[in-house]
Design a protein that fits this description.
By secondary structure, this protein is α+β, with helices and mostly antiparallel strands. Helices cover about 40% and strands about 25% of the residues. It folds into 3 domains: about 70 residues; about 80 residues, GMP Synthetase, Chain A, domain 3 (2-Layer Sandwich), CATH 3.30.300; about 70 residues, R3H-like domain (Ribosomal Protein S8, Chain: A, domain 1), CATH 3.30.1370. Strand 5, helix 4 and strand 6 form a beta-alpha-beta unit.
């Protein structure tokens, strides 16, 4: 598929939506240039069907992501063990100094360490909408990779929060899309983190009647769920 396409519609919005659908992407990953504006009309074009043309080009970073596969990171067994030791030492100190009765499980594979935390008060480490959890995951990543050449990825979950949150967001996406299809009115969701917006986009990707777009700037970036109007 070409990384630049020309899309047409009766309005600029319709032309953009068609182009995004064809490229299977969202607005934040493209550059858009209006070639023929719906407001620009001549005397001879009044009776002609209104057509708006836009040029949509995938941004370089998006093209690279589509074109290149993630390079394999070779982490030695020694590095993985050191990273695991760093993580366990940190969690032991966390349990002693902050949260008593904290129970954790650490699993290692290739260049990834998965950490599951449970305990009587472990929910304290989740925070509002997982903000504390992801902050702690960032801290654990720094701790694990201290003194290591090849970076080890860290994936943290607390009391199965991520799976529960994903299910909640998927249900929200489906429920909201039904309201949009019934009313024809777009709905803007509350601000979400990037990983949460990705869940919403993925949940509605197969719905040919619905489009999802991200608007605003971090950390107040939101998703707009809209109905794709027929020709």
């Amino acid at each position: 598929m070409s990384t630049t396409i020309i899309s047409e519609g009766k309005t600029t919005t319709e032309a953009i939506e068609r182009g995004l659908k064809e490229l299977k992407t969202t607005k934040e990953h493209v550059n858009i240039k209006v070639l023929e504006n719906e407001e620009k009309k001549s005397f001879f074009s009044i009776l002609a069907p209104r057509v708006v043309k836009v040029e949509i080009t995938l941004k370089e970073e998006t093209k690279s992501n589509k074109r290149e596969t993630r390079k394999e990171i070779i982490v030695s067994e020694e590095e993985l063990k050191k990273a695991e030791g760093n993580v366990k030492k940190f969690l032991d100190e966390l349990s002693i100094n902050i949260l008593e009765n904290l129970v954790y499980e650490v699993k290692c594979q290739k260049d990834l360490i998965e950490i599951d935390i449970n305990g009587d008060n472990a929910g304290f480490l989740i925070g509002y909408r997982g903000e504390t959890l992801y902050a702690l995951q960032t801290v654990l990543s720094s701790v694990a990779n201290k003194g290591i050449e090849n970076r080890v990825a860290i994936r943290l979950d607390i009391e199965n929060y991520k799976a529960k949150r994903e299910k909640t967001l998927q249900d929200l996406a489906i429920k909201t899309s039904k309201v949009v299809m019934n009313t024809g009115k777009s709905i803007t969701l509350e601000p979400m983190q990037a990983y949460e917006r990705k869940i919403i986009h993925s949940a509605l990707q197969g719905n040919k009647r619905i489009s999802t777009d991200s608007i605003g700037e971090e950390p107040r970036r939101r998703i707009v769920i809209s109905l794709i109007k027929n020709n």
